[in-house]
Write a structure and sequence with these properties.
The chain is mainly beta. It is built from one helix and seven strands, in the order βββββββα.
């Protein structure tokens, strides 16, 4: 499990959330980080992610993708979110 800031764009608006991320059985679970932030609870099927884009330049990286008509954007502010996503989205053979 890891924590991150999520910029989520849905059909209505773009909004920001502080979330905990957990992966189980091919699904990514997003939960509100604590009760002081906006509530969110989403389940993402990893095999149904579209438009995956990862960039790491100048020490600041990000990953974004689409799922179920929503656009997810995570920025790596030193919390190693890129490593987290690379580990769950790509086979281990790509890291060797």
């Amino acid at each position: 499990m890891t924590n991150a800031m999520l910029e989520l764009t849905d059909s209505l608006v773009m909004d920001y959330y502080f979330v905990s991320l957990e992966v189980k059985e091919g699904q990514l679970f997003l939960y509100s980080l604590n009760n002081y932030c906006k509530p969110i609870s989403k389940t993402i099927e990893l095999t149904q992610i579209d438009g995956l884009h990862i960039e790491d330049s100048g020490g600041l990286g990000y990953i974004c993708f689409d799922f179920d008509n929503d656009h997810y954007h995570f920025v790596d502010y030193g919390n190693h979110i890129l490593s987290f996503f690379k580990t769950i989205l790509f086979p281990i053979t790509l890291h060797q």
